[in-house]
Write a structure and sequence with these properties.
Layout (H helix, E strand, L loop, with lengths): L1 H30 L4 H5 L1 H4 L3 E6 L4 H12 L3 E5 L4 H7 L9 E5 L2 E5 L3 H10 L5 E4 L21 E6 L5 E7 L8
Parallel strand pairs: 1-2, 4-5
Antiparallel strand pairs: 1-3, 3-4, 5-6, 6-7
Length: 179
């Protein structure tokens, strides 16, 4: 009987030793900051897909798509224009811009910054989505060299399902022109 118990004790001792080694390894990895990106940056843990409807010839729309991709989103582009998509998704025409998108059940209209999309997805408000009406210079996609550093003030609106809006984020402009 003693031989059987000794064998089981030895097996338990090995398992405990292996668990301790795993814990030490995890501590070492986390102290190097290798685990932190998975917890702090959702794009590493999961891919968020944004469906975009835009005109195939619109440069600012493509620049906005590039902005989203640079910020960790996966973008599915449909180069068919956005008027029908905007109407089908329920975004009011008065909030229209040059592209419409959908992400995790929310509608996006216009040059919405990636940071605001992330905030929307984290907060999960009961709403239709976000809109940046028009095409404000300095917003993502409208910030290329052709604008010579100009940045106008603009506001990201939280759009309710009944079409009402409220301010979600405000961006101050600089209104400077670089020659």
């Amino acid at each position: 009987m003693r031989g059987v118990l000794g064998s089981q004790e030895k097996r338990c001792s090995i398992q405990i030793s292996q668990m301790m080694q795993r814990r030490q390894l995890l501590r070492a990895i986390s102290s190097l900051g290798l685990v932190a990106p998975i917890f702090y940056f959702p794009s590493f843990a999961q891919t968020i897909i944004v469906e975009v409807w835009k005109d195939p010839n619109c440069g600012c729309c493509q620049s906005w798509v590039d902005h989203l991709e640079a910020n960790g989103f996966k973008v599915d582009v449909r180069n068919v224009g956005n008027t029908a998509a905007r109407k089908r998704l329920g975004m009011p025409e008065k909030l229209g811009s040059c592209h419409t998108a959908k992400v995790n059940g929310y509608v996006l209209e216009g040059h919405v910054p990636a940071a605001d999309i992330r905030k929307l997805l984290a907060d999960r408000p009961i709403a239709l989505g976000l809109a940046v009406p028009g095409m404000p210079i300095g917003s993502p996609g409208m910030d290329g060299p052709e604008y010579k550093g100009r940045k106008d003030s603009f506001e990201v609106l939280l759009v309710q399902k009944n079409g009402n809006t409220e301010s979600f984020t405000r961006y101050a402009g600089q209104n400077r022109i670089v020659m």
